[in-house]
Amino acid sequence: MRKTKKIPFERIDGVKFEVPVTSLNIGGQEVFRTVPYKIDDTLSSPTDKYNHTYFWLKGDICYKVTFKEVEEEAQQQMVAALVKEKAIDLKK
């Protein structure tokens, strides 16, 4: 994402499409945010809501969160809270 400024997605019919991303600093963490996109690209209906997806890397884990029609400021506040959280240890 850092190099291409895009993230690949796949529509319901299996066709791949790419969505541009921008790099942000949220809570001291580099986070990539997509432009608004519809989940099935051109197959989506006009009434389908737009998504914004955020990605960040912590250690060797890539985190992803997607919002539908949520104000940008609220999105970034939620991502800032998630970035601060520690991963759950599933071995315990």
Overview of this protein structure:
This protein has one helix and five strands; from the N terminus they run βββββα. The chain is mainly beta and 92 residues long. A hairpin with a 5-residue loop joins strand 1 and strand 2. The protein is globular.
| % residues in beta strands | 35-45%
Spatially, the strands of the biggest sheet line up as: 1-2-3-4-5
Order of helices and strands: EEEEEH
Radius of gyration equals: 14 Å
**Assembly status:** single chain
**Total strand segments:** 5
Largest sheet: 5 strands, antiparallel
Ends distance: 33 Å
Helix content, binned percent: 10-25%
Mean pLDDT: 93
Shape: globular
Number of helices: 1
How are the SSEs placed, and which strands pair?
Elements: E1 6-10, E2 16-26, E3 29-34, E4 51-58, E5 61-68, H1 72-84
Antiparallel strand pairs: 1-2, 2-3, 3-4, 4-5
Main traits of this protein?
single chain; five-stranded antiparallel sheet; 1 helix; globular
Give the structure's gist in a few sentences.
By secondary structure, this protein is mainly beta.
